[in-house]
Amino acid sequence: MSTKTVDIPRAQEGDVLYDLEEKVFPDVQAEPGQKAFVFIHTVPFEGSVALVNLKTSTRLVRKGFDVHIVLYGPGVLLGSRTRGFPSVGTEGFPGNLAVNEQIKTLLKEGANVYACRFAMGALYGFREDDLIDGIKAFHPLDVLDSALTAWKEGAFQLNTWTV
Length: 163
Known about the structure:
The chain is an alpha/beta fold and 163 residues long. It has a single domain (35-161), classed as 3-Layer(aba) Sandwich (Hypothetical Protein Ychn, Chain: A). It is built from four helices and five strands, in the order E-H-E-H-E-H-E-H-E. A five-stranded parallel beta sheet has the order 4-3-2-1-5, with helices on both faces. Helix 1 runs parallel beside helix 2. It is globular and about 65 Å long. 28% of the residues are buried.
């Protein structure tokens, strides 16, 4: 049996353990016309990266950026409007529809969301009609051209790849 070497009170629910007042970096806001491109190539629910990128995208919209989210490869599955169990739109487990709700929030707040037709059809048998309303399907050659557009326009870019 080990002997307890530190005797301090245990944290209780509601205790604040961190300084939430100090911010190290300035609160950067977009200047008029500034854009942000978020490229997501990740499998839904295989980790937190997809939801974190969508939450980050929401912060970018709220900071005034013209936000463009490019879903390609397995990322197109984030745009499924048919998710749910036992029926579409029903949470099969708590948080099951968090990605869908975050995309809907982004679209409502003015973000542009795109999904690659090649990944939808050739990889997943996923139809354009299966996309959340407001997501724009695009030609596979647009994956590179969207990145080049971001580069040419000097946009902020966030790229995530998982396999």
